[in-house]
Amino acid sequence: MEWMLMPLKRYADFSGRSRRKEYWMFILGVIIVAVIVGLIEGVTGMGGSIGGVYGPLSMLLIVAIIIPSIAVQVRRFHDQDKSGWFVLLGFIPFVGGIIVLVFMCLEGTRGENQYGPDPKGAGNTDVFE
After folding, report:
1. What pTM value is reported for the model?
2. One-character DSSP codes across 36-89
3. What residue segments make up the domains of the chain, in order of their start?
4. Which run of H or E residues covers position 30?
5. Which of 32, 36, 46, 79 is placed for a possible disulfide with 55 were both Cys, Cβ 3.0 to 4.6 Å?
C-alpha cells in the first residue's frame, strides 16, 4: 500500500528517480480505485453524466491523479537517465503509448546518475524493483 501512495505523497515532485515498483504499484492502485468508482457510478446511475462517458466521481479521480501520474512517469524516465520530456512520446498517435509502456518496463540505471542516487539503494536484490 505504501508504494501505491508514494506518488501521491510526492504529488508534484518532478525531480529525482522512481523505481518500477513505485510506478506499477501506483498504476495498480489507480486501476483498483477506478474500478470501484465505476461500480459506484454504475449502481447509482451517475455514469456517463459528463459528456456521455464519465461520471462526476470519475472526473474527480482524473483531475486528482493527473499531476502525480505525470510526475511519477517523469521520475521513471529519470531513473533510466533520460529527460522527463520523454513523457511527450505518449502524444504520438498509435505508437506513442506503446513506446512509453516499453520505457516504463525497462530497468533503471544502476548507481547514481545525473538525476540522483539509485532509488533501489545498495544491496537490494528484489527481482521486480
Report:
1. 0.84
2. HHHHHHHHHT-TTTBTTTB-HHHHHHHHHHHHHHHHHHHHHHHHTT--GGGGGG
3. 2-105
4. helix 20-44
5. 46
